[in-house]
Input
Amino acid sequence: MKTRTIILGVAILAVGALLIFWRLNNAPKPAPAQNAAVTTTTNRSFVNRVDEQGEVKVEIQPGKIEPKAQSQFKVSFNTHTVEFNSDLIKQALLYDDQSHYYKPISWTGGESSRHHREGILTFGSLDTSPKFVELKIKNVGGIPERVFRWDLK
Output
Protein backbone atom coordinates (compact mmCIF):
# COMPACT_ATOMS: atom_id res chain seq x y z
CA MET A 1 0.00 0.00 0.00
CA LYS A 2 2.78 2.43 0.96
CA THR A 3 4.77 1.59 -2.20
CA ARG A 4 1.68 2.10 -4.35
CA THR A 5 1.14 5.61 -2.83
CA ILE A 6 4.78 6.55 -3.49
CA ILE A 7 4.61 5.35 -7.10
CA LEU A 8 1.34 7.25 -7.64
CA GLY A 9 2.85 10.44 -6.16
CA VAL A 10 5.96 10.17 -8.35
CA ALA A 11 3.78 9.56 -11.44
CA ILE A 12 1.66 12.65 -10.70
CA LEU A 13 4.79 14.78 -10.22
CA ALA A 14 6.28 13.47 -13.49
CA VAL A 15 3.08 14.23 -15.43
CA GLY A 16 2.95 17.72 -13.89
CA ALA A 17 6.60 18.39 -14.81
CA LEU A 18 5.98 17.20 -18.38
CA LEU A 19 2.93 19.48 -18.70
CA ILE A 20 4.91 22.50 -17.45
CA PHE A 21 7.82 21.70 -19.80
CA TRP A 22 5.46 21.29 -22.77
CA ARG A 23 3.65 24.56 -21.96
CA LEU A 24 6.91 26.55 -21.74
CA ASN A 25 8.21 25.17 -25.04
CA ASN A 26 4.95 25.81 -26.92
CA ALA A 27 4.38 29.39 -25.74
CA PRO A 28 4.09 31.92 -28.60
CA LYS A 29 7.43 33.49 -29.48
CA PRO A 30 7.84 37.08 -30.73
CA ALA A 31 8.65 37.51 -34.40
CA PRO A 32 12.31 38.31 -35.07
CA ALA A 33 13.12 41.90 -36.00
CA GLN A 34 13.72 42.49 -39.72
CA ASN A 35 16.64 44.79 -38.98
CA ALA A 36 18.72 44.03 -35.92
CA ALA A 37 19.29 47.76 -35.33
CA VAL A 38 15.55 48.51 -35.05
CA THR A 39 13.41 47.31 -32.15
CA THR A 40 9.88 48.08 -30.99
CA THR A 41 7.95 48.65 -27.78
CA THR A 42 4.24 49.26 -27.39
CA ASN A 43 2.74 52.72 -26.82
CA ARG A 44 -1.07 53.06 -26.97
CA SER A 45 -2.21 51.83 -30.37
CA PHE A 46 1.10 52.70 -32.04
CA VAL A 47 4.53 51.20 -31.54
CA ASN A 48 7.71 52.96 -30.47
CA ARG A 49 10.59 52.60 -32.89
CA VAL A 50 14.25 52.47 -31.89
CA ASP A 51 17.18 52.73 -34.29
CA GLU A 52 20.60 51.95 -32.82
CA GLN A 53 22.73 52.29 -35.93
CA GLY A 54 26.05 54.08 -35.63
CA GLU A 55 26.96 56.00 -32.51
CA VAL A 56 23.54 57.51 -31.76
CA LYS A 57 20.45 55.68 -30.50
CA VAL A 58 17.24 57.30 -31.79
CA GLU A 59 13.87 56.45 -30.21
CA ILE A 60 10.58 57.69 -31.64
CA GLN A 61 7.35 57.52 -29.62
CA PRO A 62 4.28 58.48 -31.67
CA GLY A 63 1.86 60.74 -29.89
CA LYS A 64 -0.91 61.48 -32.33
CA ILE A 65 -1.10 60.52 -36.01
CA GLU A 66 -4.42 61.22 -37.68
CA PRO A 67 -5.85 63.14 -40.66
CA LYS A 68 -6.78 66.80 -40.30
CA ALA A 69 -4.75 67.13 -37.09
CA GLN A 70 -1.14 67.84 -36.29
CA SER A 71 1.04 64.74 -35.94
CA GLN A 72 3.38 64.61 -32.97
CA PHE A 73 6.34 62.41 -32.13
CA LYS A 74 8.48 62.30 -29.01
CA VAL A 75 12.08 62.01 -30.25
CA SER A 76 14.99 60.95 -28.04
CA PHE A 77 18.67 60.86 -28.97
CA ASN A 78 21.26 59.13 -26.79
CA THR A 79 24.99 58.70 -27.29
CA HIS A 80 28.19 58.63 -25.31
CA THR A 81 30.63 59.36 -28.12
CA VAL A 82 29.41 62.33 -30.19
CA GLU A 83 27.90 65.75 -29.49
CA PHE A 84 24.56 66.90 -30.92
CA ASN A 85 24.33 69.84 -33.27
CA SER A 86 21.35 68.63 -35.30
CA ASP A 87 18.46 70.82 -36.45
CA LEU A 88 15.49 68.45 -36.66
CA ILE A 89 13.35 71.05 -38.42
CA LYS A 90 15.76 70.74 -41.36
CA GLN A 91 16.57 67.04 -41.04
CA ALA A 92 13.14 65.40 -40.60
CA LEU A 93 10.29 64.77 -43.03
CA LEU A 94 7.06 62.80 -42.62
CA TYR A 95 5.86 60.83 -45.67
CA ASP A 96 2.58 59.02 -46.31
CA ASP A 97 1.65 56.13 -48.61
CA GLN A 98 0.47 58.55 -51.32
CA SER A 99 3.91 60.21 -51.67
CA HIS A 100 2.86 63.35 -49.79
CA TYR A 101 5.49 64.76 -47.50
CA TYR A 102 5.19 67.08 -44.53
CA LYS A 103 7.84 69.33 -43.02
CA PRO A 104 8.03 69.78 -39.26
CA ILE A 105 6.38 72.93 -37.98
CA SER A 106 8.02 72.87 -34.55
CA TRP A 107 10.54 71.23 -32.25
CA THR A 108 9.74 71.63 -28.56
CA GLY A 109 12.31 70.33 -26.17
CA GLY A 110 15.13 71.10 -23.88
CA GLU A 111 18.48 72.23 -25.10
CA SER A 112 20.81 69.51 -26.16
CA SER A 113 23.17 68.16 -23.55
CA ARG A 114 26.46 66.71 -24.69
CA HIS A 115 25.00 63.23 -25.09
CA HIS A 116 21.20 63.36 -24.73
CA ARG A 117 18.43 65.25 -26.42
CA GLU A 118 14.65 64.83 -26.19
CA GLY A 119 11.62 66.74 -27.40
CA ILE A 120 8.39 66.80 -29.38
CA LEU A 121 8.55 67.05 -33.17
CA THR A 122 5.26 68.38 -34.59
CA PHE A 123 4.08 68.20 -38.20
CA GLY A 124 1.15 69.92 -39.91
CA SER A 125 -2.13 68.17 -40.66
CA LEU A 126 -2.12 65.07 -42.85
CA ASP A 127 -3.99 65.72 -46.13
CA THR A 128 -5.62 62.30 -46.30
CA SER A 129 -6.17 59.12 -44.32
CA PRO A 130 -2.96 57.29 -45.22
CA LYS A 131 -2.36 53.58 -44.84
CA PHE A 132 1.04 54.30 -43.30
CA VAL A 133 3.43 57.11 -42.46
CA GLU A 134 7.22 57.16 -42.43
CA LEU A 135 9.30 59.57 -40.41
CA LYS A 136 12.70 60.05 -42.04
CA ILE A 137 15.56 61.73 -40.19
CA LYS A 138 18.72 62.52 -42.12
CA ASN A 139 22.36 62.73 -41.02
CA VAL A 140 22.31 61.85 -37.34
CA GLY A 141 25.38 60.15 -35.90
CA GLY A 142 26.92 59.46 -39.28
CA ILE A 143 23.87 57.60 -40.62
CA PRO A 144 22.61 59.18 -43.89
CA GLU A 145 18.93 58.38 -43.24
CA ARG A 146 16.90 56.65 -40.54
CA VAL A 147 13.38 55.54 -41.42
CA PHE A 148 10.61 54.88 -38.87
CA ARG A 149 7.32 53.49 -40.19
CA TRP A 150 3.85 53.08 -38.67
CA ASP A 151 0.93 51.30 -40.33
CA LEU A 152 -2.28 53.21 -39.70
CA LYS A 153 -4.84 50.84 -41.23
Observations:
- Helices lie at 2-25, 88-91.
